[in-house]
Amino acid sequence: MSAVDLGIPRLRVTAPSADRPDSPLLLDRFGRVATDLRVSLTDRCNLRCTYCMPAAGLDWMPRAEMLSDAEIGAVLRVAVRELGVTSVRFTGGEPTLRKGIEQIIADTAALAPRPRISMTTNAIGLARRAAALADAGVDRINVSLDTLRRDRFSELTRRDRLEDVLAGLAAARDAGLNPVKVNAVLVRGRNDDEAVPLLRYCLDNGYHLRFIEQMPLDAQHGWNRADMVTAAEILSQLRKAFDLTPSPTPRGAAPAERWLVDGGPAEVGVIASVTRPFCGDCDRTRLTADGQLRSCLFSQTETDLRGPLRAGADDGEIAELWRAAMWAKLAGHTINEAGFAQPLRPMSAIGG
Ligand code: SAM
Ligand code: SF4
User: Fold this and answer.
1) What is the dihedral angle through the alpha carbons of 142, 146, 150, 155, rounded to the nearest 10 degrees?
2) What atom in ligand 2 is closest to the CA of residue 92?
3) How many Cβ atoms from other residues are within 10 Å of residue 23's Cβ?
4) Candidate from 6-20, 88-102, 253-267 with smallest mean pLDDT
């Protein structure tokens, strides 16, 4: 199979909108304030999850187009000091493939006010690196794990690495990156009978499990609604083995609806991005590894920060571009509307 061309769109926002209130924060027209920044450190990955990437991988971003460590540092400084970002999540692709990630994290942790720092990872190699990542400043970690069966893991990720992931999870817990969260995507005909075993495993090991509905963000455009395992279906599987009651903890901007398991305190979450969208509470803003701002996973447009950064824009100018980009954020994704178009960038190049 040949690699897939990403054909990335570009939108350069040059002037702030006249109707935007005079606020330093990342406001949009719908009253939301973005305080949670997702930073993709690379589009490369050492797995090939079928719902994310084709077997042959993708045309990776040319290195020269990726932000350098110093450029990422500059953008993060603006986000935290000028724009009110309080939470930074590093992701990818696979963020642990980024050389120097520990220093990027340490530099982020040195910002004032210090943001909360988290990472989403497939946990390959985490067994060796969890302690160093925690020392650098990672507070919490999300690990993707869709199956506990080695044959299925190999089919779903196209790599025989289940043991590495389980070891990585344990290392994260031992390094104090608690609560360790596990993200699971159920795929029809592959692992759609594993909701209960996954939850048992996470309860036994002290991990917080969240199921994520599969979204139309794969590079191969293979998503189809009829095949999607829905939140309702996942909950009905879980209810056959556990008593689920709504969690009393307020959800806020968190994407997961949470349930107490067998009266608590353990919980399970379901992120129903497709069947029960939570766009009205979204507090996210996103930076791709090649320096493009996105106001939403599903944005069809991006705002280039790399060009202005390399042309010598100062912090105030970068901040204004960012504010203008977020002011233009749409009300929500349109997966459930006729005419929905999948963004050109796949999840791995946006930063999930
Ligand atoms: N490589 C890291 C990992 O897998 O955790 C970080 C990047 S990955 C794109 C982030 C999250 O997106 C993972 O939990 C993954 O399961 C999820 N993901 C990827 N493609 C998805 C899709 N089409 N629908 C829903 N979730 C998806
Ligand atoms: Fe890699 Fe994460 Fe995508 Fe799987 S979901 S292919 S681990 S980026």
Assistant:
1) -120
2) 8
3) 11
4) 6-20
Comparing CA positions, the residue from 107, 138, 147 lying closest to residue 120 is: 138
d(CA 17, CA 14): 10
Domain regions of the chain by residue span: 10-350
Residues with CB under 6 A from ligand 1: 45, 51-52, 91-92, 94, 120-122, 144, 183, 185, 212, 214-215, 217-218, 347-348, 352
Number of neighbours of residue 26 by Cβ within 10 angstroms: 27
Residue nearest to atom 11 of ligand 1 (CA): 352
Burial class (CB in 10 A: 0-12, 13-18, 19+), 151: exposed
Nearest ligand (C-alpha, residue 229): 1
Q: What is the mean pLDDT of residues 101-111?
A: 98
User: Which of 203, 204, 205 lies closest to 259 in space, CA to CA?
Assistant: 203
Question: Model pTM greater than 0.85?
Answer: yes
DSSP 119-158: EEE--TTHHHHHHHHHHHT--EEEEE---S-HHHHHHHHS
What is the Å distance from ligand 1's center to 181 Cα? Answer: 13
At 288, the amino acid letter reads T
CB 56 within 8 A of CB 1: yes
Query: Which two three-digit tokens encode residue 34?
Result: 């973005």
Helix axes 101-109, 69-83, angle to 10 degrees: 20
Q: How far is the CA of 131 from the centre of ligand 2 (A)?
A: 22
| Region of residue 221 (left: phi > 0; alpha: psi -120 to 50; beta: else) | left
State pLDDT tens for residues 197-233. 999 999 999 999 999 999 988 888 888 888 899 999 9
Say which CATH architecture domain 10-350 belongs to.
Alpha-Beta Barrel (3.20)
Measured in whole angstroms, the distance separating CA 44 from the mean position of its chain's CA atoms is: 15
Whose atoms come closest to the Cα of 212: which ligand?
Answer: 1
Those residues whose C-beta lies under 8 Å from the C-beta of residue 246, and which sit 6 or more positions away, are 257, 258, 259, 260
The structure tokens listed for 226 are 């009829």
Which position has the token pair 């000091």? 81
